[in-house]
Amino acid sequence: MEQEKILSTLSEKLGETSFSPQTLQTYVELNPIAEGSEPDEAYWNKAVNFLKGMQGQYNHDVATRVEDFKKNYKPQPTPPTPPTPPAPQKNDDELEKKLKELEARLDAEDSKKVQADLLKKVTAAMKAKQANDDYVLGKTLQGVTFDTKKTVDELVTEFLPKYDAEYKACRGYGTAPRTSDGSGGTQHNAASRYFERKGKKEGWKKN
Asked: How far apart are CA 122 and CA 154, in angstroms?
């Protein structure tokens, strides 16, 4: 979609606003759409919520300055020299800085939600592959940042060997890392050791 069309659609969705067309154009330029792609509902929602939040802050700042001026204003015997209006470029730079800061916070929140969702899906998928030890699974995935370009199946394939290695480090090498009953092979190995000791004691098991 062309930039003019994006700007027009954004203005319609935003409705009445204190921002100038130049300010809205700055936002669109700072948030480009990949070539050949179309803005989706998430893009519009994010843009509208962001700009409305900025507008509320902007209106609040203007109102505060007006009130401060009224409180501190003292009539002069001679007409005061009109204050020099601030340079538009400075205002644009400040607005652009705030836009970038808020955009960064929104991106960080989105990233946290995506990572949390992936953690749930990968955990469930690994348990389906008999990685049932919650402690070992938690250690394996602790502090992990998932590659969002990979599918859940690809991530499971990547982390299962790490789970197996973590299991051996935590539980020892005498048990199987993954079993269908979640016991990690402990019951089978304990039984084997019991019969081995019993056989040696009774003489029917050779060393």
From this structure: 10
Please tell me what DSSP assigns to residue 34.
Answer: P
Read off the pLDDT band of 193 (50, 70, 90): low
Which of 142, 131, 122 minimizes the C-alpha distance to 176? 131
Tell me the DSSP string of 61-92: HHHHHHHHHHHH----SSPPPPPPPPPHHHHH
What is the token pair recorded at 73?
């204003």
Residue 90: what residue type?
Answer: K
Cα separation, 187 vs 161, in Å, equals 22
- pLDDT of 68 strictly over 90: no
Percentage with pLDDT > 70 across the chain: 71
Burial 21-36 (b: 16+ CB within 10 A, else e): eebbbbbbeebeeeee
- In sequence order, which residues have a C-beta less than 8 Å from that of residue 27 and are 6 or more positions away? 10, 47, 50, 51, 99
Looking only at Cα atoms, what is the longest distance across the chain? 119
**Which H or E run contains 197?**
helix 186-202
- pLDDT digits over 133-176, tens only? 999 999 999 999 999 899 999 999 999 999 999 998 888 766 66
Q: Which residues contact 22 (CB under 8 A, 6 or more apart)?
A: 92
Judge whether 125 and 154 are in contact, CB under 8 Å. Answer: no
